[in-house]
């Protein structure tokens, strides 16, 4: 069966495009008694970017903290805060930040129109009602969260996204100027998330011309950014992130992402750095990709944390292995339908022990 998938319908790209945000959302201010919520990473509290937001009337500025990756309990609390704020629901949500903040904005806009806890919707196509209008303004590039149909959340029993067509943003506004100010390490880790999306998509068994066309372009852009130091590298990384997201939308990620989910669930390691930690041990799966990744690390003088699992007991290691192996489509994409005989618990454990 072929997937019939939706994509973000409205996209604006360019340096300074952030200045047009007011005009972009204006037609969506439909109810005169309503308001917009600006969900902004608290790293921007009191910063120039926050001052440039087109806040008016009853609009709510909602600072979010992403020291931990988004949890379902956090989403539920934020939704309650918005519901308590006013009698009417907001006309729209604008997320401003990296992948974590964008996922928070997505999840809030879904949960404003769907009953219960966000944990009830971790899975595929469980959402019943369309979301509130929502907009992404990324300030980091690489995750592809701006284009994907998932909002990745850590819940009481699992780390899994709310995957649905309603999760997709209605509008994305890509302004490369907003990437300024990020630390070199964070820029690298989030950028490598994109590079790894491309490698896992292109090297996977699910590959097809659609995913290949986007994946190859994204990989080419990543090389210009991380190996050639291209003067327009911020513009290029934003487009690489978008194309990488489009590539995996019609294929899948692979071994590195599966292993990084285990690291994240048990040790709370963030997505980008977790992918980097795992990828460095995956020569046996992605030889050429890992070689290039190491060149990029060397060029940018990045050193990864080591020995993260050294002090974990058997129970924690076991949970990590289970978390990784539960991501069946990722392994099937990586190793084919026979993956269970190839990717045993022992082999997974050995990889984790090296990390
Ligand atoms: P992030 O959003 O977690 O942010 C990382 C750090 O950078 C934070 O401390 C943040 O405050 C800071 N930051 C963000 N923009 C900044 C800026 N311009 N200047 C200075 N600091 C800035 O990082 P990320 O790597 O973009 O996102 C990772 C998250 O995305 C994870 O939660 C992961 O689960 C999620 N993710 C989602 C998808 C998806 O398709 N929905 C895909 C991959 C990853
Ligand atoms: Zn990723």
What does this structure look like?
The protein has helices at 21-25, 48-51, 72-85, 99-111, 184-202, 209-226, 233-249, 255-267, 271-279, 287-299, 314-325, 328-335, 339-342, 345-354, and strands spanning 10-13, 36-41, 60-64, 92-97, 123-124, 133-138, 150-154, 159-163, 171-174. The chain is built from 14 helices and nine strands. It has two domains: 10-179, Rossmann fold (3-Layer(aba) Sandwich); 188-354, Dehydroquinate synthase-like, alpha domain, CATH 1.20.1090. It is 45% helix and 12% strand. It starts with 9 loop residues before the first strand and ends with a helix. The protein binds nicotinamide-adenine-dinucleotide and zinc ion. Nicotinamide-adenine-dinucleotide is lined by residues 41, 43, 66, 69-70, 97-101, 103, 139-140, 143-145, 148, 150-152, 178, 181-182, 186, 190, 193, 270-272.
Search tags:
single chain; 355 residues; alpha/beta; 2 domains; 6-stranded parallel sheet; 3-stranded mixed sheet; binds nicotinamide-adenine-dinucleotide
Structural class: alpha/beta
What's the N-to-C terminus distance? 38 Å
Tally of helical segments: 14
Q: Gyration radius, to the nearest Å?
A: 20 Å
Percent of residues in beta strands:
5-15%
The CATH class designation of the largest domain is Alpha Beta
Could you give a short description of this structure?
The protein is of the alpha/beta class and 355 residues long. 45% of the residues lie in helices and 12% in strands.
């Amino acid at each position: 069966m072929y997937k019939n998938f939706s994509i973000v319908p409205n996209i604006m790209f360019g340096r300074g495009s952030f200045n047009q945000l007011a005009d972009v959302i204006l037609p969506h201010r439909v109810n005169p008694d309503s308001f917009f919520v600006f969900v902004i990473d608290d790293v921007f509290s009191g910063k120039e970017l926050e001052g440039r937001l087109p806040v008016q009337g009853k609009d709510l500025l909602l600072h979010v903290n992403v020291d931990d990756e988004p949890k379902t309990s956090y989403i539920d609390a934020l939704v309650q805060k918005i519901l308590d704020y006013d009698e009417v629901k907001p006309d729209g949500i604008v997320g401003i930040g990296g992948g974590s903040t964008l996922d928070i904005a997505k999840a809030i806009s879904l949960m404003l129109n769907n009953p219960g806890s966000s944990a009830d919707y971790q899975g595929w196509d469980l959402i019943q009602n369309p979301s509130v209008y929502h907009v992404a303004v990324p300030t980091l590039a690489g995750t592809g969260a701006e284009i994907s149909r998932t909002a990745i959340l850590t819940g009481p029993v699992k780390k899994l996204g709310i995957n649905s067509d309603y999760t997709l943003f209605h509008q994305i506004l890509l302004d490369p100027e907003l990437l300024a100010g990020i630390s070199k390490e964070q820029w690298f880790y989030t950028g490598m998330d994109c590079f790894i999306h491309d490698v896992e998509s292109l090297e996977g068994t699910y590959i097809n011309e659609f995913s290949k066309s986007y994946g190859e372009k994204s990989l080419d852009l990543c090389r210009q950014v991380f190996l050639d130091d291209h003067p327009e590298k911020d513009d290029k990384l934003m487009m690489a992130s978008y194309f990488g997201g489009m590539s995996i939308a019609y294929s899948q990620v692979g071994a590195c992402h599966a292993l990084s989910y285990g690291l994240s669930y048990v040790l709370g390691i963030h997505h980008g750095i977790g992918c980097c930690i795992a990828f460095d041990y995956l020569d046996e799966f992605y030889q050429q990709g890992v070689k290039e990744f190491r060149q990029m690390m060397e060029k940018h003088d990045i050193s990864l944390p080591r020995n993260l699992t050294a002090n974990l007991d058997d129970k924690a290691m076991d949970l990590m292995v289970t978390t990784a192996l539960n991501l069946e489509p990722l392994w099937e994409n990586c190793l084919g339908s026979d993956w269970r005989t190839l990717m045993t618990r022992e082999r997974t454990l050995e990889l984790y022990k090296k990390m």
